[in-house]
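# step 3/5: fold
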Amino acid sequence: MRNANPDIIPLIQSKALELLMEKNPDSIGMRDIASSCGVTATTIYHYYKDKDALFQAVGLACLRELNERIQRNTEKKQTTRKKVLSAIHAFRDWCFENPRRALLVMQGIKSADDASPEQIEAFYVCNRTGESLLKKAVDEGNAVSENPRLDVGILVSGLWGCIESILLKKSDAAYWKNGKAFTNRFIDLWMKSIFKEEEA
């Protein structure tokens, strides 16, 4: 793989994301992406071994964007408990505001399960932010968790299941237009299982 051209990489990822907003990953070929970029497919193969690798890079960029939002939201809160809750809300709200991207990142793009452990770890950037916050709450004596990584993993998986059921209209129809009420119940159950009574 040649050294990355600082101009072509963002262009390729941007055009790939535009196509992913319109079509399923299986319906998009490297030539489609190349045509959209105004380059040859060979050029794209210099930077990505295949379209799955390219789509994974796009998904990772979306996760980094989400994590930046999570971090911005938590900076405004005074207590660690409120930071955790703010992080959860940021994740949920981003998914509802960007449903197509959320569905692609969480289920549409092929998992990078054949990548190196370091590459796989990059996809858990949001989980690690949550894990760090929960560890701090435990250290402060405000939360109980024997395994913060596991508890945050369960939170993310469970909350995503609730979000997905709203986005795909698989939940009770009464919540299709009120996803926050549906997800707030799950969030409340998780918070009560981990945190002691809310600070006054």
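# step 4/5: annotate
The radius of gyration is 19 Å.
# step 5/5: archive (pending)
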